[in-house]
Amino acid sequence: MIILQSKGLKKRYGKGETQVWALDSVDMAVEEGEFLAIVGTSGSGKSTLLHMLGGLDKPTKGQVWVDGKELSGMTDEELTIFRRRNIGFIFQNYNLIPMLNVMENIQLPAGLDGRKLDQAYLRQVISTLGLESKLENLSSNLSGGQQQRVAIARALAIKPAIVLADEPTGNLDSKTSQDVLGLLKVMGQNFGQTLVMITHNEEIAQMADRIIRIEDGKLVKGAVSRG
Predict the structure, then answer these.
(1) Which candidate in 5, 96, 150, 162 could, as Cys together with 29 as Cys, close a disulfide (CB 3.0–4.6 Å)?
(2) Is the pTM of this model over 0.85?
């Protein structure tokens, strides 16, 4: 079943002679439970694409469907609520709240939405990520790898339809990167999560089920491979 899809997706920045098409007619589909890597160099449009897929920015033209819902027809308030309930985000810079402890950071998105988390499921996520002994620690006192694990737990805690990861190992050393990506893959398999990750790192991308490439805002035909 297709869980994420875009059709004719375009994004333009600027006007007239200064206009740039960051995305140009991107058509793609992601199956439920798939781990997809989108690979591209800096400026290729991969971050813009991820923002469009996650409803963080609106396309100039085209449409995006997440779990059967088309995003462009939503108001800003509806889109904010939909994102909070259906999309988990993992960022390169972790985006944790330094004055909150690990458990408070993990529970924050659900708390903002006034929802109660499935505690049995949450304990399983925390255990799989090896965070049981860190729950009372302030996030600012953790290593980079540990902070990224907290960010993964936070993204998964709401049982999102999809998880979008923006260069999730960009601030980590090679060994920690492999560990974190291995955990992401295990989490996807254990909890049936769909994961879309953008990266410029070819070695990291090989851990995905499928790889697509983007250049100059366009998906490269014939550049689709299995990880």
Answers:
(1) 5
(2) yes
